[in-house]
UniProtKB/TrEMBL annotation:
<keyword id="KW-0472">Membrane</keyword>
<comment type="similarity">
    <text>Belongs to the major facilitator superfamily. Sugar transporter (TC 2.A.1.1) family.</text>
</comment>
<dbReference type="InterPro" id="IPR020846">
    <property type="entry name" value="MFS_dom"/>
</dbReference>
<feature type="transmembrane region" description="Helical">
    <location>
        <begin position="138"/>
        <end position="158"/>
    </location>
</feature>
<feature type="transmembrane region" description="Helical">
    <location>
        <begin position="75"/>
        <end position="99"/>
    </location>
</feature>
<dbReference type="InterPro" id="IPR005829">
    <property type="entry name" value="Sugar_transporter_CS"/>
</dbReference>
<dbReference type="Pfam" id="PF00083">
    <property type="entry name" value="Sugar_tr"/>
</dbReference>
<dbReference type="GO" id="GO:0005351">
    <property type="term" value="F:carbohydrate:proton symporter activity"/>
</dbReference>
<dbReference type="InterPro" id="IPR036259">
    <property type="entry name" value="MFS_trans_sf"/>
</dbReference>
<keyword id="KW-1133">Transmembrane helix</keyword>
<keyword id="KW-0813">Transport</keyword>
<dbReference type="GO" id="GO:0016020">
    <property type="term" value="C:membrane"/>
</dbReference>
<feature type="domain" description="Major facilitator superfamily (MFS) profile">
    <location>
        <begin position="1"/>
        <end position="231"/>
    </location>
</feature>
<feature type="transmembrane region" description="Helical">
    <location>
        <begin position="36"/>
        <end position="55"/>
    </location>
</feature>
<dbReference type="InterPro" id="IPR005828">
    <property type="entry name" value="MFS_sugar_transport-like"/>
</dbReference>
<dbReference type="InterPro" id="IPR050360">
    <property type="entry name" value="MFS_Sugar_Transporters"/>
</dbReference>
<protein>
    <recommendedName>
        <fullName>Major facilitator superfamily (MFS) profile domain-containing protein</fullName>
    </recommendedName>
</protein>
Length: 280
């Protein structure tokens, strides 16, 4: 039996059967208990802000957006909307390498501010020039540049951290379910974005960008005052942030289970083996 499964069994009682309906319900309910609710909130809201930053609205409706800001022709709109994916990919690469050195909170805060400013700039340009884009080509391409700036900021902040942070705040016994719930939040908000963006764009393209700007602005305060820094942080330190001992309890249970399964002795033997052979 896997150590994670034994952890769940230990937490919910020796007689609980892993995978049974009762134990599964109890495991899911744990996420909303006082012990884990703050961590669950972090995972769910992380994905809310990731989606309402507006990234998928740009990916899904890139050609429509380019048409709204005055760019005509299929080749131009496909080039610009395809460039969104390329810029995001290029921005993610250095972040993956340096994310532990830079930290989660600084990247989220910087990304929130940059994305909000980019959205507001696009909104102002659309409101000012949407009635006569052909006479304001510079304004149109400035809006496109802001789309690229937004995409780069997203790729260096909410893009990768949205998937990293939920897995870091949950202890091992509930990590799989906690991350699953965060992923469900991601897809639910993704669905909402796909549903409301065409309506918002038809009603007011400028207001659409203001909405995303406000979401990014709210994300700044959330990442500043709510999100804990999890880069290079131990389970004990994360427990201290949340005022809980869940991670330490999991670690103790894990060591106990490893002793029961003989894994501790096996690790010791493997560690001592080479030196013993050398001495012989």
């Amino acid at each position: 039996m896997r150590v994670e499964a034994r952890l769940v069994e230990k937490i919910f009682g020796e007689t609980a059967k892993q995978g049974s309906f009762r134990s599964e319900v109890r495991a899911w309910r744990q996420l909303f208990s006082k012990k884990y609710i703050n961590r669950t909130f972090i995972g769910i809201v992380m994905m809310f802000f990731q989606q309402w930053s507006g990234i998928n609205a740009l990916l899904y409706y890139g050609p429509t957006l380019m048409h709204e800001i005055g760019l005509q022709g299929d080749s131009i709109t496909l080039l610009v909307s395809g460039g969104i994916g390329i810029v995001q990919f290029l921005a993610v690469l250095p972040t993956i390498i340096f994310i532990d050195r830079l930290g989660r909170k600084p990247l989220l805060r910087w990304g929130s501010v940059t994305m909000s400013v980019a959205h507001l700039t696009i909104s102002l340009l659309v409101r000012q020039f949407e009635s006569d884009w052909p006479s304001h080509v510079v304004g149109a391409w400035t809006a496109v540049a802001c789309v690229y700036i937004f995409t780069a900021a997203y790729g260096m902040s909410y893009g990768p951290i949205g998937w990293i942070l939920p897995s870091e705040v949950f202890p091992q016994s509930v990590r799989s379910k906690g991350v699953s719930l965060a992923t469900a939040s991601n897809w639910f908000n993704n669905f909402l974005i796909g549903l409301v963006t065409p309506v918002m764009m038809e009603f007011s393209p400028s207001l659409t960008f203001v909405t995303f700007a406000l979401a990014c602005f709210m994300g700044y305060f959330w990442s500043t005052y709510v999100v804990p820094e999890t880069a290079n942080v131990s389970l004990e330190e994360i427990d201290a942030v949340f005022g809980s001992s869940a991670g330490q309890e999991d670690a103790e249970l894990k060591r106990e289970i490893e002793r029961e399964l003989g894994l501790r002795d096996l690790i010791t033997e493997l560690a001592d083996g080479p030196s013993s052979s050398f001495e012989a």
